[in-house]
From TrEMBL:
Name of the protein in its database record: F-box domain-containing protein
Any single Pfam family the record assigns to this protein: F-box-like
Lineage: Eukaryota, Fungi, Dikarya, Basidiomycota, Agaricomycotina
InterPro entries linked to this entry: F-box-like_dom_sf, F-box_dom, LRR_dom_sf
Domain F-box: 2-57
SUPFAM superfamilies in alphabetical order: F-box domain (SSF81383), RNI-like (SSF52047)
């Protein structure tokens, strides 16, 4: 009997490995030598450094071995003080920050394109050390995506300096930040603007921003959004979750207006009992293609006037918590969506937050009440809970 050894093309095996989950990738690395590099490159492309794996990673980086895992890492996520959310001993938060310990070895990560830092500030009051900024900028001059989660900054220039340290930055995610020096008893009061000379990175085109929540009260970040609004406007994508208690609703609206005709995708959510977004309109965003209002109750009856202000070839519309709309508002909404000015719409997604059965019931109601609208085929109704956004 003659045995034939079949060897799959490298391009095919690479695609198989690329679409494998982490457990399968670890097994792929054990199949044969030709699979090792591709499997490890994908398995190690994203790593998170925390208090449970830091020691082993540093030992590996300082072992003197010609091969290190760091060369495969494209997205580096550092929990600055360890994962304080799961630590049973909170006193560990007082130890030297993991990032400070990692900095002497940071140059090993030569291919990083995305950086993420998590300060877990709900359990920690320490601020970002501005001495880290220059060291990171020198190590990662080509970073395109920066994520800062749950961090305290002593003052606004510290945050601005960090963002400006990466000239190739195209995407910024900023969630639950606090500028300590700008805190107020009532943080919706006017705050000091940025007084420096730095402007946002000229390639920055995407922002994902979320205010601090009620359980981790934050303030002082409104001036940061105003700094972005005053800079060169290349924003094509804005995802804004704005809280009046954090003093950033007006600033977020200013950024939205400043983006003007460049803006193509907008996701918006307000928590604002004072209606500080009043007067919001989208007439200047003339190239808007995708629009998301995660909670229609944020805007109340003004939702209709905002949609009426659209002068763009909108293709995709998503509305959340639609089960909270009353009958009159639903009528007005359908009337708006069937106007010739919105004939460019390709999809309209209605999301309810309560249950799948409520979504099914709402779909039945709309199909009966507005048969022509429902039969266009662009309408979709489903359940999407808050944590799924």
């Amino acid at each position: 009997m003659v045995s034939h050894r079949v060897q799959l093309p490298n391009e095919l095996t690479d695609q198989v490995i690329l679409h494998s989950d982490p457990t399968e990738l670890a097994n792929c690395a054990l199949v044969c030598r030709s699979w090792v590099s591709t499997a490890q490159r994908n398995l190690l492309s994203r790593i998170t450094i925390h208090e449970r794996n830091y020691t082993e990673i540093v030992q590996h980086l300082t072992s003197g071995a010609p091969y290190t895992i760091a060369a495969y890492v494209k997205r580096l996520n550092v929990l600055l003080w360890g994962d304080l959310r799961t630590m049973s001993n909170r006193r560990l938060a007082d130890k030297t920050p993991l990032l400070h310990l990692l900095l002497p070895h940071i140059s090993n990560f030569i291919n990083v394109q995305e950086l993420a830092f998590d300060g877990c500030r709900a359990f920690n009051t320490l601020c970002w050390d501005d001495a880290w900024t220059d060291l990171l900028a020198a190590a990662f001059p080509s970073v395109k995506k920066l994520t800062v989660h749950y961090l305290n900054f002593e003052d606004l220039p510290d945050l601005v300096d960090l963002v400006c340290s990466f000239p190739q930055l195209t995407h910024l995610t900023a969630e639950d930040l606090d500028i300590v020096a700008a805190s107020h008893e009532y943080s919706n009061e006017p705050q000091e603007p940025y007084g420096g000379s730095k402007t946002p990175p000229h390639l920055l085109e995407s922002l994902n921003y979320r205010s601090g929540g009620l359980d981790t009260f934050a303030s002082g970040v409104g001036p940061f959004l105003r700094w972005l609004a005053a800079g060169p406007q290349n924003f094509t994508t804005l995802h804004l979750d704005l809280d009046a208690e954090a003093g950033d609703v007006n600033a977020g609206v200013e950024l939205l207006v400043a983006a003007g005709a460049n803006l193509r995708s907008l996701s918006l959510m307000f928590s604002d009992q004072w209606h500080m977004w009043e007067g919001l309109e989208l007439s200047g965003n003339t190239n808007l293609r995708s629009l998301v209002f995660r909670n229609v109750t944020d805007l109340g009856d003004d939702l209709i006037s905002i949609l009426e202000s659209l002068h763009s070839p909108l293709e995709h519309l998503i509305l959340g918590h639609v089960e909270d709309m009353d009958k009159e508002m639903r009528n007005n909404l359908v009337n708006i969506l069937t106007r010739p000015s919105l004939s460019s719409l390709k999809t309209v997604d209605f999301f309810v937050s309560s249950s799948d059965s409520r979504a099914e019931a709402l779909a039945g109601e709309i199909s009966v009440e507005y048969p022509e609208f429902f039969k266009t085929g662009i309408v979709s109704i489903a359940c999407k809970r808050h944590h799924e956004w």
